[in-house]
Amino acid sequence: MTLMVMVICSVASGLSFGHEPKAVMSTLCFFRFWLGFGIGGDYPLSATIMSEYANKKTRGAFIAAVFAMQGFGIMAGGIFAIIISSVFEAKFPAPAYADDALRSTVSRADFV
């Protein structure tokens, strides 16, 4: 159940909808809120499942590995975000902060 909530809310967060910025942020916050419930339910559940299926000899090491791998997952997510951001920056370079992108492409005559 928690995995299903996490998958659905993750996809829905990425596909937040709305015609106005406020509506997009509202749907994003809604789905991220429920994603937090899914993650909060999965956090203790993963250790519980590991402790039930491990034998007595290796149980402590397996539970420690479950919690240690969460740090590696956070690090992998950060590295993935950096790679995707650099690909987007190379493909779609943003104008410098000092440049006014709207003034250079839109003239007053367009609105009259």
Automatic annotation (TrEMBL):
Transmembrane segments: 61-88
Major facilitator superfamily (MFS) profile domain sequence ranges: 1-112
Protein name (database record): Major facilitator superfamily (MFS) profile domain-containing protein
Source domain of life: Eukaryota
UniProt GO MF annotations: transmembrane transporter activity
One GO term describing the cellular component: membrane
Keyword set, alphabetical order: Membrane, Signal, Transmembrane, Transmembrane helix, Transport
Lineage summary: Eukaryota, Viridiplantae, Streptophyta, Embryophyta, Tracheophyta
N-terminal signal peptide: 1-18
Localisation per UniProt entry: Membrane
